[in-house]
TrEMBL record:
The gene is Rspo3. Keywords: Disulfide bond, Glycoprotein, Heparin-binding, Repeat, Secreted, Sensory transduction, Signal, Wnt signaling pathway. SUPFAM superfamilies: Growth factor receptor domain, TSP-1 type 1 repeat. SMART domains: FU, TSP1. Residues 116-170 form the Spondin-like TSP1 domain. This is R-spondin-3. CDD domains: FU (cd00064). InterPro entries: Furin_repeat, Growth_fac_rcpt_cys_sf, R-spondin, Rspo_Fu-CRD_dom, TSP1_rpt, TSP1_rpt_sf, TSP1_spondin_dom.
């Protein structure tokens, strides 16, 4: 078909025709042929559409088709996104991922298989039975660990995160709840009572001594003094008058 070049082209065309659309593009724009029915129309775009990749030449920038299984590509031989049903791996679209890799249905890519990883075991817990640490001889002790890396779909599953084993302890009686506190309270009350009793006894003793002292002082004040009898002979030693 004769191009029949037109003047005053629209849509970024440098040259165009009424029948074939754009024949060349303005600088930095990509030329691509779009199929409409049985014919192709040239258009000029700032970037290539899905399923095409762009190449730049000195005289023209063109969009070329990606491979049939590729949705978007960087070059014809390097895909960046695959069509439905294919998995992307190293720029190629595959129906099945290679050995050692697994299909990621979320990203539609072939990725490395990730195995589970667990942390080190914690120390063993105290020996218990029914939640208590006393009142028994044989019980159980437990240790745990955490999962630090969850596996992918084909990765090795995670191991158990807890272990339990039998244990033996020196049997001891359990204090009833509140009994120890009650005993301490009773001892404190008894101690306070003994101290109060001793204090009262000391106070009574001091009061009694003070009362006796005051009684003696009153008796001394009220009792008359004894007078000396002049007629009473003094006890004198006998005088020897033999000579």
């Amino acid at each position: 078909v004769h191009p029949n070049v037109s003047q005053g082209c629209q849509g970024g065309c440098a040259t165009c025709s009424d029948y074939n659309g754009c024949l060349s593009c303005k600088p930095r724009l990509f030329f691509v042929l779009e199929r409409i029915g049985m014919k192709q129309i040239g258009v000029c775009l700032s970037s290539c559409p899905s399923g095409y990749y762009g190449t730049r030449y000195p005289d023209i920038n063109k969009c070329a088709k990606c491979k049939a299984d590729c949705d978007t590509c960087f070059t014809r031989n390097f895909c960046t996104k695959c069509k439905s049903g294919f998995y992307l791996y190293s720029g190629k679209c595959l129906e099945k991922c290679p050995d050692g890799l697994e299909a990621n249905n979320h990203t539609m890519e072939c990725t490395s298989i990730v195995h589970c990883e667990a942390s080190e075991w914690s120390p063993w817990s105290p020996c218990t039975k029914k939640g208590k640490t006393c009142g028994f001889k044989r019980g159980n002790e437990v240790r745990v660990r955490e999962i630090v890396q969850h596996p992918s779909a084909r990765g090795n599953p995670c191991p158990a995160t807890s272990e339990s084993r039998k244990c033996i302890v020196q049997r001891k009686r359990c204090q009833k709840e509140g009994k120890g506190k009650k005993n301490r309270e009773e001892k404190r009350k008894k101690s306070n009572k003994d101290e109060s009793k001793e204090t009262r006894q000391e106070s009574k003793g001091r009061a009694a001594r003070r009362q006796n002292r005051e009684q003696r002082e009153n008796n001394n004040k009220t009792q008359p003094k004894k007078r000396k009898d002049p007629n009473k002979e003094e006890n004198l030693a006998p005088v020897d008058t033999a000579h």
